[in-house]
Amino acid sequence: MLTLSDILEARPRVRETSRHTPLEHSHTYSAMTGADVRLKLETFQRTGAFKIRGATNRIATLSEAEKEAGVVTASAGNHAQGVALAATRVGVDSKIVMPEYAPISKVKATRNYGAEVVLSGADYAEAAERAHEIEREENRTYVHAFDDEAVMAGQGTIGLEILEDCPEVETVVVPIGGGGLISGIATAIKETKPDARVIGVQAEGASSAAAALEKGEVVTIDGVDTVADGIATRSVGERTFEHVDRYVDEVVTVSDSEIATAIVLLLERSKTVVEGAGAVPLAALLSDAFAYDEDETIVPVLSGGNIDLNTLTNVIVRGLVETGRYLKIRTVLEDRPGALDDLLDTFSKHRANIYAIHHDRTSRDVGMSDTEVEIELEMRGHDHVEAFLADLRSEGYEVDVLV
Ligand SMILES: Cc1ncc(COP(=O)(O)O)c(C=O)c1O
């Protein structure tokens, strides 16, 4: 098992490449929850996520001969960039295998951090297979993304920073993918302050840690489906499972809608870009996925901010839908001049702002003398949506809510 002294030893090494990230009190989330919420902003870490910490510590523990031979890993996400930069900063050669479909932005970022990127395989498993071949062929060291004690110890330095910047911490909330991040943080917290709670959070569509804890052993789930790609993992590791089992007080799950709402809130209220995996701790807090007391000092670890712009666009729309600020409806009008005008009068009355309108006289779904209209609207919240829909219906419009 990892110990506090492993994490303390990791600290000066990790400082060579990584930042001590800010921990900031949030007035907004404190007011929303009644707790005393302090955000650990690992989104401001170099490369945009915590992964550089673990990679740095793993690489620092290599022998001179191993450093000479270089490292290899497989990843389409934050681990790729973390290993690339950690290796480059200490003059170690790195090769990162990414699946062929990997987004070009991630490939470029990883190359920019100094790694040689090898595109191979249709998915992560195939890329990992190729990375293990390279490990054998070139005698490189494979840097595991989570199931390695030196990696966990590096991630655990986040726990030390939390204890230092917020000694009164009562609960730390951490995302779980493979479990390396929470293993390190939980070891640091529990060995220093055993009565502080550590809560793990997974996406509903990738809840392998919750399943493993229930069964008492590592469980590989059949598939994963979540917007939080950083934690879309089919199982925790053998080593990380032992730490989660021993130190983590509770593992909870959140839905993609809850994650989207948290991302949008963080953008709008905190001016902070957070990826899905990084937003799950706040999503869990805001959806009351775990119980907490009034004024409890809670630290959600916002572990990363590398969200793809297309994903972010979808998430924003989803977040707007969840908060009643985007509405898409369909209705049927008589096909006569002025019918659309009459409808739009009700829109004006409610100050429902139109994003887009599609008026289709040829739709096969309506009668020959009718026309179908689909409208996308900017709204001001659920109450606004309800009053608006009620009014439309009372005026005789049949309205389907599409989104
Ligand atoms: C942003 C982010 N948060 C959380 C995690 C989960 O970390 P772990 O796999 O160590 O549980 C990852 C993993 O890639 C990540 O990229």
Description:
The chain is of the alpha/beta class and 403 residues long. It has 3 domains: 4-50 and 148-319, Rossmann fold (3-Layer(aba) Sandwich), CATH 3.40.50; 53-142, Rossmann fold (3-Layer(aba) Sandwich), CATH 3.40.50.1100; 324-401, Alpha-Beta Plaits (2-Layer Sandwich), CATH 3.30.70. Helix content is 46%, strand content 19%. The chain has 16 helices and 14 strands. It has helices at 4-17, 27-33, 51-60, 64-69, 78-89, 104-112, 124-138, 149-165, 180-192, 208-215, 238-247, 256-270, 276-286, 309-322, 339-349, 382-394; strands at residues 23-25, 36-41, 71-74, 94-98, 116-119, 141-142, 171-175, 197-203, 250-254, 297-302, 326-334, 353-360, 370-378, 399-401. The strands form 3 sheets. It has a 6-stranded mixed sheet, with helices on both faces. β4 (94-98), α6 (104-112) and β5 (116-119) form a beta-alpha-beta unit. α9 (180-192) packs parallel to α11. The chain is globular and about 80 Å long. Bound molecules: pyridoxal-5'-phosphate. Residues 49, 77-79, 146, 175-182, 230-231, 275, 277-278, 303-304 line the site of pyridoxal-5'-phosphate (PLP).
Quick summary:
With 403 residues, this protein is of the alpha/beta class. The protein is 46% helix and 19% strand. The two termini are 49 Å apart.
What attributes characterize this protein structure?
403 residues, alpha/beta, Rossmann fold, Alpha-Beta Plaits, six-stranded mixed sheet, four-stranded parallel sheet, 14 strands, binds pyridoxal-5'-phosphate
